[in-house]
Amino acid sequence: MSTEYSPDEMMTVSAARLLRNGAVCFVGIGLPSTAANLARLTHAPDAVLVYESGPIGAKPSVLPLSIGDGNLAETADTVVSTPEIFRYWLQGGRIDIGFLGAAQLDRFANINTTVVGQYAKPKVRLPGAGGAPEISSSAKEVLIVLKQSKRTLVEKLDFVTSVGFLTGGNSREDAGLRGKGPVVVITDLCILRPDPATRELKVTCIHPGVNRGTLAANTGWKIQFDEECKETEKPRAEELRVLRELKARTAAAHGVEGEAA
Amino acid sequence: MAAWLSLAEAIATNVHDGDSVAMEGFTHLIPFAAGHEIIRQRRKELALIRMTPDLIYDQLIGAGCARKLTFSWGGNPGVGSLHRFRDAVENDWPRPLEIEERSHSDMANAYVAGAADLPFAVLRGYTGSDFARINDKIRSITCPFTGEVLAATPAVRPDVTVIHAQKADWKGNVLLWGILGVQKEAALAAKRVVVTVEERVEALNAPPNACVLPGWVVSAVCEVPRGATPSYAHGYYDRDNVFYRAWDAISRDRETFNAWMVKHVLKTENFAEYLRVLAESQTSAVCQ
């Protein structure tokens, strides 16, 4: 097996590493689901994966293509209704980590998945909220994974679908939001974490082969670097093997590749 | 007691022009056969409600059946955009579509409120987001006991809810299992309920806590095998992921979409014929 790796694999592996074993994780479909299952199949066998369609403790052997695939139900500890998953399990305060994707993100890790352009006459109509607004507010911590470019990390969001740190500083706490908010953002170029005081995202790890100029060129605001900014550890052979086998099983089972939406 | 009807009769009797219609099923058990029948009967001015519009509402919207959509996530799961939904919102084609946009948690709570005959739902949600700016029905209420400010949103009370399930017995008692979504709440929130099922059985033989809708809350029940495809029915057939992917190309272009709808839905008599025609289309596509 080649230990050469793609930026997408670097992103998925770094995101997976940040899911601690035993955590109860509310998983979004797409990139978060890939990373969460990679974590479960490597260092975090006791992570509890919760999907908004109702499965609690899902252990799929192939990646789900939709949020409600049958293999999530079949491998779960229990399957509850959609009202119950949001009312008792998420709002009830039982989720350690909300694992989200995003179409656009601003410097305070607020998320837009609704529209590009004006709401009433959008340039691009995106899918919308799904479960993310309440995941981002109620989960104890939030991880966000997305591909980085000037189109995704933007100066100003056209719509705030799900909240990060609002306008920074203590504005999230002042608004009465319960969870801590986004503790880390993982992209295909770097890892960002909020500054403890301003809550602006700062680069804390740069993926191997990426330089600061590339990061600046792929960010819609003047990106800041943490003083102790390091290089991300390369994907280990074992991580790549498990990820590639997972993707191969998924393609074989579904007849199509996963992870678009 | 539920009336056992053909799907055509059930839709003719229960779904009228101008109705608010919820057709639920969270990826699983999406009532596609019923959606096609609504299009075949050329219903119009419908106010559609569904957490995830999915391909079923992409088809209804593109066919011009809807004046309004209440929803919380409008994508093609695992694939990308719903092109007919986007064309309606971005370009008013084939007609303008009013949208009422909410979150999943809100919609789920709003169905619960509807089922419980309450006027509104209460949840801890939307704080700091832009939703209240674009949906004036997202408001707040102060808890009389703690002073906490919570989101308050209107209950969902459809004129008719349509769902698909695995089984029903001769009395119309309906059994569903697997990913349950909001179907029970959507059914109990509605004035009328139409259910399509994979099969009619003598007895459900369901364990005591199974998800059963008693026949006396169901208006009409119809036997429609494979009635949820290209979604899936747990224990019967898998999700047709290849069709979900193919829909991206079918729906991207208005003419291609129209031609597909005419051939597969408007010119077929019923869902069984749709499945035959679809199978022929797919075979010829493979041969090309």
Structural class of chain B: alpha/beta
What is the percentage of strand-forming residues of chain A? 15-25%
Q: How many domains of chain A?
A: 1
Gross morphology of chain A: globular
Number of domains of chain B: 2
**N-C termini distance of chain A:** 28 Å
Major β-sheet profile of chain A: 8 strands, mixed
Low-confidence stretches of chain B: none
What class would the helix/strand composition of chain A place it in? alpha/beta
Structure, described:
The longest helix of chain A has 18 residues, at 237-254. Chain A has an eight-stranded mixed sheet with strand order 2-1-5-10-11-12-13-14, sandwiched between helices. In chain A, strands 3-4 form a two-stranded antiparallel sheet. A two-stranded antiparallel sheet of chain A has the order 6-7. Chain A has helices at residues 7-17, 31-41, 70-75, 82-90, 132-138, 171-174, 212-217, 237-254; strands spanning 24-27, 48-51, 55-56, 78-79, 97-100, 104-105, 111-112, 115-117, 122-125, 141-145, 182-186, 190-194, 201-206, 224-231. In chain A, 56% of the residues are buried. Chain A has 261 residues and is α/β, with parallel strands linked by helices. Chain A has eight helices and 14 strands. By secondary structure, chain B is of the alpha/beta class. Chain B has two domains: 3-102 and 157-277, Glutaconate Coenzyme A-transferase (3-Layer(aba) Sandwich), CATH 3.40.1080.10; 104-154, no CATH class. Chain B contains ten helices and 15 strands. In chain B, the strands form three sheets. In chain B, strands 1, 2, 3, 4, 7, 11, 12, 13, 14 and 15 form a ten-stranded mixed sheet that branches. In chain B, strands 8-10-9 form a three-stranded antiparallel sheet. The mean pLDDT of chain B is 96. Chains A and B meet through helix 3, helix 4, strand 9 and helix 5 of A and strand 5, strand 6, helix 4, helix 5 and helix 6 of B.
